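Query structure, 283 tokens:
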């Protein structure tokens, strides 16, 4: 029994993105599956540069008629199971940028008051306190994300820790948040090893992926995750068949001290393939 507990502590976990398809089940169902240790709510797609922040959870609910406040009970039930629930900011199709130090501070204040431990009369997801913020920054000039990370991290002094996670592309260093990742403030970094042929799995070979994984282990962060599409059609390229992942790729990565597990895009695609269930015992 003691050995089993030790193994469990050292085992990796699976992170999933939820919120971009109404045909992926509820947040509560996602956490009740027992497949995931982290859930990223996707996305706060508009913020910064003086814009009114806007969250987009596809067809799940309408935040502008206070229709997403009911997610509070699901968030709390996820957290009661030990699952960390993050708000993912950015995304591939968002309208976002930070234009100054002041802008970064204003965005941090907004996130704290509306999603984390602060107070606001207009909390889009209700009164549940999320565990932290996920940086899925895929555009812009790459500036001031380090400042946003510092401001958000500073709120940890107010009580509950604010976890910081990020989803950079696998080319190293990341063009947008490479600087922010140097701060050492990020707890988990799930790297997108897909839609990036030079550094991903292709044609049955994981050589490029493993080479870039070694580069990523140099960043000052707690744990890094292998980010993958959960189905062949979840991304343009980079899908790894289950058998190859569990027999070849993961054994090569798990020997690194910063290995944290696997991130999957997304819950909708995972529902169709059962990818997380198929790999869970090997992660």
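Result returned for the query:
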């Amino acid at each position: 029994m003691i050995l089993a507990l030790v193994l469990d502590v050292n085992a990796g976990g699976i992170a999933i993105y939820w919120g971009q398809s109404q045909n992926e089940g509820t947040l509560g169902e996602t956490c009740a599956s027992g497949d995931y240790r982290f859930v990223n709510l996707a996305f706060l797609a508009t913020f910064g540069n003086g814009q009114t922040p806007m969250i987009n959870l596809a067809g799940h609910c309408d935040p502008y008629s206070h229709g997403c406040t009911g997610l509070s009970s699901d968030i709390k039930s996820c957290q009661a199971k030990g699952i960390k629930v993050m708000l993912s900011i950015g995304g591939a199709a968002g309208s976002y940028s930070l234009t100054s130090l002041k802008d970064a501070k204003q965005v941090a204040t907004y996130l704290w008051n509306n999603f984390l431990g602060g107070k606001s009369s207009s909390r889009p997801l209700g009164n549940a306190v999320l565990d932290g913020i996920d940086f899925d920054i895929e555009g812009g000039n790459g500036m001031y994300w380090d400042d946003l990370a510092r401001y958000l991290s500073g709120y940890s002094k107010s009580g509950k820790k604010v976890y910081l996670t990020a989803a950079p592309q696998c080319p190293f260093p990341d063009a947008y948040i490479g600087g922010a990742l140097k701060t050492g403030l990020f707890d988990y970094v799930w790297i997108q090893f897909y839609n990036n042929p030079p550094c991903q799995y292709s044609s049955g070979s994981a050589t490029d992926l493993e080479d870039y994984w070694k580069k990523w282990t140099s960043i000052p962060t707690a744990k890094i995750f292998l980010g993958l599409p959960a189905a062949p059609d979840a991304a343009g390229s980079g899908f790894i068949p289950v058998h190859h992942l569990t027999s070849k790729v993961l054994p090569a990565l798990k020997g690194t001290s910063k290995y944290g597990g696997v991130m999957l895009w997304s819950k909708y695609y995972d529902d169709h393939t059962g990818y997380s269930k198929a790999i869970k015992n090997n992660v």
